[in-house]
Amino acid sequence: MRLNLKLAAVGWAALFFVICLLALTKQTAFDTSIMALLPKYEQRILVSEVQQEQAERYANHVFILVSAEQKEAAKAATTEAIAQLATLKDRVSITASADQANAQSNNLFAYRFSILSDAVRQRLLTKDYESQQQLALSQLFSPIGAGKADLIQDPFFLYSDLLLTQKSGIKVKPEEGLLRLTESQQPSYLLILALHQNPFDLPTQAQIMPVLESIKKDLATQGARVSYSGLLLHAAKGAEQAKSEISTIGVGSILGITLIICLVFRRIGPLFQVLFPVAIGCLVAISVTILCFDRVHLITIAFGAGLVGVAVDYSMHLVCENSLEHSEGVVKKLFIGLLLGLISSVLAYGGLALTPFPGLQQIAVFSCAGLIAAWLTVILWLPVTMPNTKTALLPAARILNHWKETLPRLDQYPVMGAFLVACLISVTAGLVYFAPTQDSIRLLQTSPSSLLKEDQHVQQALGNNVNSAFLMVSANNMESLLQQEEALRQRLDPLVTSQALLGYQSISQSLPSLQRQQQNQQLVNQLYQTELENYLGKLGLSEQQKSLASHSLDQNQPNLTADEWLNMPISAPWRSLLIQHASGEFSSVVQIIGNMPTATTAQLKSIALSTPNVDYVNQVEDISNTLARYRAKMTDWLMIAYGVITIMLFFRYRLNVWRVMLPPIAGSVLALSIAVAINGGYNLFNLIALMLVFGIGLDMGIFLQESKNSPHTWLAVSLSTVTSLLAFGLLALSQTPVLYHFGIIVLPGLTLIWLISPLMQSTRLEKL
Amino acid sequence: MIKYCLSLMVLSFSLFTSAASLDELKAITSTPNTLSGTFTQAKYLAQLDTSLRSTGEFHYLRDKEITWHTLTPIDSRLKLTPETMSNYQNGKQVNKMDSGSNPVVAILSDIFFAVMTAQWQVLETYFTVNTKVADRQWQATLTPLNANIGSFANKIILQGDQYLRHITLYEAEGNRTQIDFSQLQP
Fold it and tell me: What UniProt keywords are attached to this protein's entry (chain A) (predicted)?
């Protein structure tokens, strides 16, 4: 037995080193993107590919806005910013100016008869040639015109119309080698950084952020204002916030534990014995998580900080009991309780892995690995480090026990007990059926509002008024994609006309389908046949010149193909709307401009439903729906976990099982009620926290039941509750909404369980 | 009137001897809050070797709006604000373009505003400005800084005294637009 234990201890040590070494060799990013917690959408693969592509495009760019009171100052500041950014060449590519030579080159001139603006097309379709002629005349006499006035090659000024109706996505214009914002009160310039690595990459953050901060500071002294927009800023802020919060929680927890243990045991040894298994547990938990996943998430780490509270139980019991028993006896005496505690917690947390929620799966792996490692360390290594001498009952244990004995026992008052249980059941039912739920995406918003405001400021200045919802068109080839888009636009245009929709952007506005281009050419041919003679005659052109003009139309009828278009600078703002799938299929995004009333949203949805190959995609709504779905699943899982564990423990405690189960149930229900009262509703993260409350509460009940009211068990339970509270008390103060919602449950939950548990003890001494 | 203009031009050319600084120009030119007057425009189309003449009236509110109303040979009104560019025919709006979403419109309206209201600082962002000043008469030659503007004009010559009196736009392929202002009233 002794040898076996020693062998096992050595085996565990070897395994521990192997796990840690393996984890060290793996490159892992520290992820704060809350989106990573969400499951892959249960949608068509094309939709999720498009969503991913769109998200990555946003993720990998930083938009920088430099503005000042005076234009010269703004320009100087922009030049200075570019100079400072040049040091980041390995990490980012900088765009400071448009390709000016090409920005307005005449490469669309050849296509003036096949690409027509909506207005011109409409006039030609309705044969309103008179208006078209009038417009051409006013162009001819206008003091300012776009493109050349050429009565032979383009008498109806179709090219100039094309130029004037081309739209650019963001409101900038090239000016003196820089990008100047067109719709900003102060003179402002735009710089765009494209990151080479994803924004969660820590070295990327570490190199870029200080430069961005120093640019902001340096230019502020020159009177220029610099604003940033990009996921990088949020990611860096999130990582920083997580780091600081986790270290406050970690430091707070460890300081608290140190202080309390030194006070209670008056020795330094127990401190090491308590913290050592926790440290091993955390190391193994992180290592195993790194080995199983590509990115370790902030929420996992935060939950892990809380796990200290569960892991500390095991060593606390051993250390407390060691005051009265030899080390080997302690393990024997506590083994069943420790094993039951571990199995129930691992079952509860392991169950999370069954949910299709990647974030919850990570928490499950982290928790189970950490708990098992801490437990093995307690059972196999701790006894070796323990003194073999008995000491007297600890004074703290005596005081706590005395207080506990004065509390009433519930089994003395069966009627009262039954009444309380009935109350509990009705409160639970009330919570499940009536408590408002909060599934808004704002819950996931971890960035401080100042950062969000800055982001919004930049996006507004850029005129980026794009709705997060969009329509998506898919097809097997480009031509069919464009044709379907044009068909869809026919259904969208009435919405724009009736002002239900502010507007939209789609590729076919810049690149019409070949079918549409041929139609347009026919329309122009008809215009020429009916009007050219009369129109040019009015202007006094000779017969020869008229025939030259008509000849020019016949000579110039090329179609713009998708490949040619993609190679033109004009397609630059539109390219991000086109996605080519690995399967060879194409999708395009039809961006919605501005906010929409719900009626319009419903109309867009019904258009998408009734049109093949068109999808309505709203990621914000999807995320909220997903949160709601998993909140419901989590409620179910909590019920199942409680049920399964009650049945499992029934085999050991028989009818006394209520003494173990009632405190965590009561504590959880009351804590949830408190959270609902404070926040006006509950959410998924409250429920995840209930899982932890359940784990710790269950341990408490099991040990109290196993130890038959031993004063040292009560001391251990109280100590681990206090340490957990120290850790979670700080979580409730977190600025990160997700962590706050976690803390707000754990804080009252654990306190209540600790207060309720003594009431559940048996008044008779039973033999189990 | 035309004689007067021509003689003024001849006179001007002969007197312009030294390059002046923009500051001098700024000192001479005045841009009242509102200005209205009539214009004569001759658009020379090299290809057809013919000039298209038009006349009309204009009115501006500085930094706010320019109305360019062609009366002959057609009735056509162009209204420019810093944000939009609209065309009216026979009093009816036929189109409206937004300079925020179209860079071409933005540059065109920027330049036209700057030319009409003598905003030399704005012009300097698009052109190299060479000026000559003599006896309260001035001439400025604008050469585009980049190809973008080249499609609008290869060269612009502005002439005037207290007010802008003549604009000559040299466009692509030998086309040229000459605008003369008269009856200017602040």
Answer: Membrane, Transmembrane, Transmembrane helix
Nearest to A137 among B74, B152, B179 (CB): B74
Q: How many angstroms separate the Cα of A136 from the Cα of each of A159, A636, A648, B102, B131?
A: 11, 69, 86, 20, 35
Nearest by Cα to A188 from A572, A458, A456, A453? A458
- Per-residue pLDDT in tens (0 to 9) along chain B, 186 residues: 343 343 333 333 333 334 456 777 777 887 788 889 999 999 888 878 888 889 999 999 888 899 999 998 888 899 998 888 888 887 888 778 877 677 778 788 888 888 888 888 888 878 888 888 888 888 999 988 776 666 677 889 999 888 889 999 888 778 888 999 999 888
Task: Tell me which chain B residues have a C-beta less than 8 angstroms from the C-beta of A146.
Answer: 104-105, 108, 151-152
Tell me the domains of chain B and their CATH numbers: 2-185 (2.50.20.10)
A464 reaches B (C-beta below 8 A): no
Cβ-contact A692, A720 below 8 angstroms? no
Residue-level length of chain B: 186
Residue A292 and residue A365 in contact, taking contact as beta carbons nearer than 8 Å: yes
| b/e per residue A190-215 (b: at least 16 CB within 10 A) | bbbbebebbbbbeebbebbbebbeeb
Chain B CB within 8 Å of residue A46 CB: no
| Closest CA–CA distance from residue B76 to any residue of chain A (Å) | 6
In terms of Cα–Cα distance, which of B55, B60, B92, B58 is closest to B74?
B55
Q: Cβ–Cβ of B103/A104 closer than 8 Å? A: yes
Residue A333 phi/psi, 5-degree rounding, is -65, -40
| Among B43, B94, B107, beta carbon nearest to A135 | B94
Q: Answer yes or no: do A104 and B148 touch at CB < 8 A.
A: yes
Q: How many CB atoms lie within 10 A of CB A356?
A: 12
Q: Hey, what are B113's tokens?
A: 């505003």
SS3 category, A108? coil
Which amino acid belongs to residue A616?
Answer: Y
Query: Considering only CA atoms, which of A542, A557, A527 is closest in space to residue A151?
Result: A542
Residue of B nearest to A123 (CA): B94
- Give the domains, in start order, of chain A with CATH numbers: 32-97+177-235 (3.30.70.360), 106-173+514-540 (no CATH), 399-457+618-707+735-768 (1.20.1640)
**Are A482 and A513 spatial neighbours (Cβ–Cβ below 8 Å)?**
yes
Of A504, A508, A509, give the one whose Cα is nearest residue A596. Answer: A504
Angstrom distance (rounded) from CA A480 to CA B107:
36
> Which of B50, B78, B104 faces A104 most closely, judged by CB atoms?
B104
